[in-house]
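for the record, two folds in this file. i put them one after another cuz i was lazy. first one right below, seq on top, structure tokens after. the second one comes after a little note so u can tell where it starts
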Amino acid sequence: MIKISVIVSIYNSEEWLDDCLKSLTEQTLSDCEFICVDDGSKDDSYKIVNKFIEKDTRFKLIRQKNKGLAEARNEGIRNANGKYIAFLDGDDLLQGKKALEELFNIAEDNGLDFVTFDADCFYESDILRETSNRDNYYIRKKEYGLYSNGLELFCKMMENDDFCDGAWVLFTKREWIISNKLWFVSGLNPEDCIWSFMCYMHAGKVRHIRKRFYRYRIRSNSLTTEKITFAVIYGRIYTIREILRYMLTNSLSYREEKEICKFIDIILWHMKDKFRNLQVSEVYKFNGLSPVESLLARYMNFPALNLLKYNKLLYIEGFKHTIKNASGIIIYGAGKIGKLVYQYLKQERILENFHGFVISKLICEDETLNGNKIRCICDGELIKTDLLLLAVTEQYQKEMVALAEENGFIKILSIDEYLAYALEEYYG
């Protein structure tokens, strides 16, 4: 019988993966399998896994197209044969040779749905230690021991400011995960927060042990230190929405409601800084939220709508200043964004310097748009000192910039998604 399936999530982890997998080979418990899920890595991570497979039959490799950490873990769960599941990220380490053995014995002896434990953090650099310090986040102040259900343990930890999420500090029973449909939400960032919360809400008997069985690497360009995008913000909006859904559809005591609301407050507190650091080009995506999600965003320290409007106007004013100083203007792209830019030029009455539309390849010689003849970018009569406005979506811009430069254009300005959204709102 396989006692434990360790699911190792891998994405471009070759720099750290050898140490990660060695920490598994050192475990004293032999009745295990180590399922390595390579989530579309662009490096040679899979070759490192194959070297371990050659020496140790407990290692298995699953390679898939990049679907994100949540789906990598789900794929591992689906393919697991062990009674219990442990999670390990490809840049982290298991700590202590008897970690898996101790966790298995505790879970078996007590008939637990999960065991939770602590973790150490270590840093790629001194700068990260200062800017992303999480030394005490995964170290509980006390050992909580055995509890009759996960909600009771959650409340006790929250009362002591001791609760932390993280899939890899939970050692769970596989059948319990499946029967309660505790799958990770595909594409969500962060995926751990709502998953951990739901594990506590659904669990029967659980136990915490104050042992640090995990070493969590803090590094640049990881999910926890990456730049702030809409996806990072949306992950928190989704999490709070689902926590509220749980509260409204379950009968909870005053104490339970209080501690769950306290957990929401913690998420909201972290949101404040994330909203402040959100890239301007990502803000427009909030327009696509559902009505309920928009309502939540407005109460999650999201900048006031009038402030966003002011920022958009400033953005457009900067664009207008650039356009007015151009001796001539050509719009490269005759689709939705190209039409928006033309409408802007028309409404701002700055068409006198507009020299027409161009596209990469003409289908019809007599093609026109808004009464203007559309020409090919390679047309030799085009004025190469004109400002070329690249009015296409981001996925095509790199290729079109190269084509424009090849044809002698030196003044090229790309219309990014945020400006396109602002133009649509004010001039569309």
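(here's the note) second protein begins now
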Amino acid sequence: TSYEVYLSTSKNSGYQKIKTVKAVSGKSVYSYTIQKWNGKALKKGKKYYIKIRAVNGTAQLSKQTTVKSVKCKKNGKLPVSIKGDQKNLSYQISVSLKKKTGYKKVGTITETGKKKYSTTISKCGSSKVKKGKKYYVRVLTTRDDGNYVYGPYSKVVTVKCK
């Protein structure tokens, strides 16, 4: 088992993985000091939110999902197509205006045995998709078989709405 440490300045979104702490046999208490986030020192008086997730090394999904395409439509929507590979998986679609931070979950696709899946995004957080903006899209593969298991994020895909 390992523990993944996530940090955000917002309680409900924008969490970024900052460290994986590997478990040591016979040890039940771990500590880790967070000194920097996004390459900058933490600010005194600023509120930060931390999430810690236990990851069982044998149960983690290893295959990265492939984003097949993301295109901006004139109606202000972003159709996202992904390539699936196994049954009983779900794919969480996240969008941000920044490449490395600020991702918000905007949708989930549940796999039914097909090879390609798609959904349409109309919002990035609470704002509608707008012309002239650049959006960053990534996908997280998950499986819920009694224990939630996560895979790695897909490569970030950039799309500019013209």
